[in-house]
């Protein structure tokens, strides 16, 4: 039982996912600090005066629970965009390149699909001879027509 668990943990794709997750969490902390201490003050400055941030007070003055803070939303949006860009350019792109050097296609475009005439499932591979959902026979995929 422990040998099977060890084999499960040492699978290459599981280790790759774990390393990617740790790196993503580290970048998340870095980007969160950037948005909290650089972006938030810039966004808050646009409100002007002695306001708490970019937004409106909906209830009594000074009550944080009724303050509509658009600045925090803008900051969270910027954080999300930066985080996704960092994950894509520092994890996904190098991983795709590494896998391509090994002869494996990672994160490729999905192949062509067709619709099953019996159950109307739209996710069948174009070359499928049976439907994944209703097991009905599928017409052969149209082959390339050549002219002589």
Automatic annotation (TrEMBL):
GO CC term, one of those recorded: membrane
Listed PANTHER family: LARGE-CONDUCTANCE MECHANOSENSITIVE CHANNEL, MECHANOSENSITIVE CHANNEL MSCL
Molecular function per GO: mechanosensitive monoatomic ion channel activity
Compartments reported by the entry: Membrane
UniProt-recorded name of the protein: MscL family protein
Pfam families xrefs: MscL (PF01741)
Principal subcellular localisation of the protein: membrane
Domain of life: Bacteria
Keywords from the named record: Membrane, Transmembrane, Transmembrane helix
Membrane topology: Multi-pass membrane protein
Species this protein is from: Streptomyces sp. R44
Stored InterPro entries: MSC/AndL, MscL_channel
Keyword Membrane part of the UniProt annotation: yes
Keyword RNA-binding: no
Listed transmembrane segments: 73-95
């Amino acid at each position: 039982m422990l040998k099977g668990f060890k084999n499960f943990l040492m699978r290459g794709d599981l280790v790759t996912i774990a390393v990617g997750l740790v790196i993503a969490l580290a970048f998340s902390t870095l980007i969160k600090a950037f948005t909290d201490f650089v972006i938030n003050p810039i966004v808050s400055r646009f409100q002007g005066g002695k306001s708490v941030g970019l937004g409106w007070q909906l209830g009594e003055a000074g009550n944080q629970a009724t303050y509509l803070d658009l600045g925090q939303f803008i900051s969270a949006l910027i954080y999300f965009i930066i985080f996704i860009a960092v994950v894509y350019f520092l994890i996904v792109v190098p991983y795709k390149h590494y896998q391509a050097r090994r002869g494996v296609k990672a994160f490729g475009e999905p192949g062509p699909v067709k619709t099953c005439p019996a159950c109307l499932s739209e996710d069948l591979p174009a070359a499928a001879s049976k439907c994944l959902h209703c097991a009905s026979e599928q017409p052969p995929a149209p082959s390339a027509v050549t002219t002589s």
